[in-house]
Design brief:
alpha/beta, 11 helices, binds phosphoenolpyruvate, TIM Barrel, 14% strand, eight-stranded parallel barrel
């Protein structure tokens, strides 16, 4: 059975294509004093490539982690415009978001590529957040579990059982991303428990340890109820993470 108490809550802000270098400095300056640092919640900032180095510099010593929003599966090669895991590690980046629905939709991100990216991230020393989630049409057609099963099984296919729990999974229903339509706490719990059970099909130990986050229109008002669900281990926050005060309140909600 999942043991929520053994899993450290995790809240990550996905800035998407926001934040220049100057804006990153100003943001982190405002954020750090507002965060409950050292209180048992893991905090991540998913910055665009150009802001990664300055984000790492600004959070130094705080325990806040910096993540990239994508990476290529190869360590190096003839892949114009791409960035590899070792390049991110060299900057001090701790993790990487993989398979975000915006990248699946707009950048031809495939489950096949993710099969290689997730283990490549682990190999490079990055903690991946693998995003999965159904469209509105799939939910209405009763296809949510089929879609989640497919994405979770594909994304984790080449990860050994021993390393499964090093992957964080973000359940992000596409219909809730950037729409203001947050999933109900019951919907989030049901889908996340299902994802945990899918990991359990591979390893019960990993299922107990793996963290599964909810993402989709989380804000300071709705975070508490969603984060109090037994299988919800934290949140991946898009729009609301752009305001340091609001993001800090969401992080605080993960502690209550
Ligand atoms: C996201 O982009 O991962 C996300 C959850 O966005 P939002 O919070 O804006 O819905």
């Amino acid at each position: 059975m999942p043991d929520a108490s053994a899993r450290t809550p995790y809240v990550a802000g996905n800035w998407k294509m926001h934040m220049t270098v100057a804006a990153t400095r100003a943001y982190v300056d405002k954020l750090l004093g507002r965060l409950p640092l050292g209180k048992g919640v893991e905090i991540g900032l998913c910055a665009p490539f150009t802001a990664l180095a300055v984000a790492v510099e600004c959070v130094d010593g705080s325990g806040v982690k910096v993540l990239a929003q994508n990476m290529h599966q190869a360590a190096e090669g003839a892949f114009t415009g791409e960035v590899s895991g070792p390049m991110l590690v060299e900057l001090g980046v701790a993790g990487v978001v993989l398979g975000h629905s915006e990248r699946r939709r707009d950048n031809c991100e495939t489950d096949r590529a993710l099969q290689e990216k997730v283990p490549a991230a682990l190999e490079a020393g990055l903690a991946p957040i693998l995003c999965v989630g159904e469209s509105e049409e799939e939910r209405e057609d009763g296809e949510t579990q089929r879609k989640l099963r497919h994405q979770v099984q594909e994304g984790l296919l080449s990860v050994s059982d021993e390393r499964l729990a090093e992957v964080t999974i973000a359940y992000e229903p596409i219909w809730a991303i950037g729409t203001g339509r947050v999933a109900t706490p019951d919907q989030a719990q049901e889908a996340i428990a299902f994802i945990r059970a899918l990991v359990g099909d591979r390893s019960q130990e990993a299922a107990r340890a793996v963290r599964v986050l909810y993402g989709g229109s989380v804000n300071a008002e709705n975070a508490g109820e969603i984060l109090s669900q037994p299988d919800v281990d934290g949140a991946l926050v898009g729009g609301a993470s752009l305001d340091p005060e609001e993001f800090a309140r969401i992080v605080g909600a993960a502690l209550t």
